User: Fold this.
Amino acid sequence: MKWITAPVVAGLLMSGSVMAHVTGGHGQMQQGQMQHQMSDEQYAWGKTGNAKQVDREIVISMTDDMRFTPSVITVKANETVRFVADNNGVLLHEIVIGTPDELQKHAVMMEKFPNMAHDEPYMAHVDPGKQGLVVWNFNRPGEFEFACLLPGHYQTGMKGKITVKE
Assistant:
């Protein structure tokens, strides 16, 4: 069972965010890889993909100059993508997929609670020199983003764009 402290709950309520967070540090993640159970929960930007039904794999490099490569990605609606987030830096980084509005709210939350850990299927925390995985089904067309929301990283421009076409 995961416990959420009162300051975290207050922050979540104030932000209007429905993302689940637990206390702890980003550094507690096991080699930057998170295992997520399959979930049918629908988000504006898609839902958890089935790792056995991946249509394409995209390797995304994360560096300490606060950039992702590639930073612009185009996928087809209903495509399931395995993102391999490759941390080529010496700092902890993360990749979080969402709408620009949700990512902005989450970035503000991270500034207030920089040690909060996450356990969502659309994100991965990646220790230096490690890789993290996100398998995502983009079942809705639209313009979405991915970002590193660690304090200072997003604000410095560590984000990218995902276009989902019909």
In short: Residues 100-112 form the longest helix (13 residues). DSSP finds two helices and twelve strands in the chain. Residues 153 and 164 are 25 Å apart (CA to CA).
